[in-house]
# Entry
Amino acid sequence: MSTLPIRIYGDPVLNQVTTEIENIDGRVAALADTMIETMYEAPGVGLAANQIGVQKRLFVYDKGEGPVVVVNPVIVESEGEWTYEEGCLSVPGLSWEITRANAIHLIGFDLDGNEISVEADEFEGRIFQHEMDHLNGVLLIERLDADQKKEAKKILRQRQLPVALHDPDGLHLL
# Structure
């Protein structure tokens, strides 16, 4: 199994809304395997397909109980608020206190095409919301207030983070 470079802040692919997966097949399963390996190597607890340049609605995660794949996810309910420090593999080395819904209900499909329905709160719910943001073209920096966003962008410019351009259209993987 191999890993792929994770796209980082500044790569336009991260700001695009992903498209639904029409057919869950062996190519999707192979993509999920690569994503899981990439997530673990990073290391991270979640990874959306567009973070490796694939513009499809798929994310993988592991909250400590083994990897899970979610195809075409949708958050159908959310409630409450929970503030927690959050980082992102596409914005390496930075994290902020982010307020998100405390509890959510997510539906989607597994790699066998079976419907998944998960009610999650706190950490697991945050993972889902974070990955859904990616699939909707929203990067963590967009969740910051104006002053935080300005400071974050200044830091990122100073670092001059390179943009991974391995397969810009994401077609060779899916």
Observations:
- The two ends are 16 Å apart (CA to CA).
- Helices lie at 26-41, 122-135, 146-159.
- The domain at 12-159 is CATH 3.90.45.10 (Peptide Deformylase).
